[in-house]
Amino acid sequence: MFSGLRGRFLLIGGVILVCLWALFGPMLTGDEDSTPLKLGLDLQGGTHLVLEVSDPDGAMTTEARADAADRALEIIRNRIDQFGVQEPSIQKVGVDRIIVELAGIQDVGRAKTIIQQTAFLEFKIVQDGQDFRERLEEIDSVIVAAVGVEALSEEALTPAGQSIEQILQQDSAGAAEVAEQPKYRPLTRLLLASGEDGVFLVEEPHYETVLGYLALAEVQARIPSNNDLVWGADTRGVAGKLYRPLYVLDAEALITGDYLSDASATRDQLYNQPVVLFQMTRQGGRIFERGTSRHVGDRMAITLDGKVQGNPPVIRETIGARGQIDLGTGSSLVEAQDLALVLRAGALPVPLEIIEERTVGPSLGQDSVDQGKVAGLIGVVLVVVIMLWYYRLAGALAVLGLVVYVLIVLGGLAGLQATLTLPGIAGLILSVGMAVDANVLIFERIREEVAAGKTPRTAVDTGFQQALSAIIDSNLTTLITAVILYQFGTGPVKGFAVTLSIGIVASFFSAVFVTRTLMLAWMETRSPSAQLSI
Hints:
- The chain is of the alpha+beta class.
- Helix content is 53%, strand content 17%.
- It has helices spanning 5-28, 41-44, 62-83, 108-116, 130-147, 164-168, 172-179, 187-190, 207-214, 217-222, 282-293, 333-345, 362-415, 422-435, 437-451, 456-488, 491-524, and strands at 38-39, 46-53, 89-93, 97-103, 121-125, 192-193, 199-203, 227-232, 236-238, 241-250, 255-256, 260-267, 274-280, 300-304, 307-308, 322-326, 352-360, 419-420.
- Strands 5, 6, 7, 8, 9, 10, 11, 14 and 15 form a 9-stranded mixed β-sheet that branches.
- A hairpin with a 5-residue loop joins strand 6 (192-193) and strand 7 (199-203).
- Helix 1 crosses helix 13 and helix 3 (62-83) packs across helix 12.
- The chain starts with a helix and ends in a 10-residue tail after the last helix.
């Protein structure tokens, strides 16, 4: 079919149409992502993060850290894919480090939260808190002994048992004087009754203090073993003051997020608040159903990474495989979507710490693009001038083949959704010169045949046949090198390898097929006795 000129031109035209569609098709169809070529981190800006497995106590072995990094790598990749970043670079480096490169990212803080969030989900029952309340005086004594501070006198303390409303009516000057005292303020006075069973409130200025007290090993030993103290993710506003809720939960969870199969964000139709709808696996649905059937009428807290999400609802009836997570007042739909995203991707096996963060500005990328355009234009002009001067008409045909070559390279990058990086631009500019290398081999062989007295048609056929083996050998060895670079290289090196590989294929097609077709078409328009200008 392709031995005749008609078939050859049909194939070339088809290739050109496919490349044009790959380049400009998205814009014609109204696709939101209508950029013909995706640019890498070094060209359009973005964020470069280096994450490391967090092991502050040094308890993990090297094998455990490596295994945790491997599992975290897949989870991060799933999260980023659902986040919608085009062509991210996510790879493991060393034993326990992960490099994440996000090109064109707008909200860096949101991306970091999605990547770092452990997303460990638990469903726990809220207790009445009576056992913990009865231990508070003992815990206060332990704190005084452990920290070595003196307790405030009874006269300086707020009377026990007061409600929040009564406390807010205290003289502000007196309250400030008490707050400045460098003495221990007991938990019996810092943990205020909220009016709800199993929920204490702590004024926001005292939150860090209470958090530190409860973290003491001596205090942890006094907390009832069936209690789990968990802070709320959001603060509560009461009469102009902010309070942090502390929940007393069952130590054992009804079920964890390991049984979660799907999650999606939406708005509650009744209160117009963002919620996350979740779906359990079949086994998880049975476990959840058995657990909630024993606690109908109790409140159930949903904890994510050790924080209670929203206000724990009352279990009105048995819950099966489906349910929802209320994010609370003030949350946005974007936050609900991010939570659903990390829940779908799964929980990280261990926390990850950002040890390096680097931001590449888009202005630097634009400078690189502009310089690459100038360099590419200069290179193309020089190649065209040299080919026209040295090979005359045959050089003009090679230049037309070079146009097809460039179109194939750009269309190939767009069609494969490859990312064009700064090294990729270098590879493209380099391959422009390499593209005419095959033409040089062919034209020199044709010159030898013409000098031997053969007709133009015979000289062209013989020249292409004699040069074909050398062209295949040179392109094949270069292609093998490009494959090795792609396999073992990192982001920028891979960009160079992809561009080089596509350029090699395009070069072979343009030199061996396109240029020969143009030469055959030219000879069809000339008389058999016409001389070949080469």
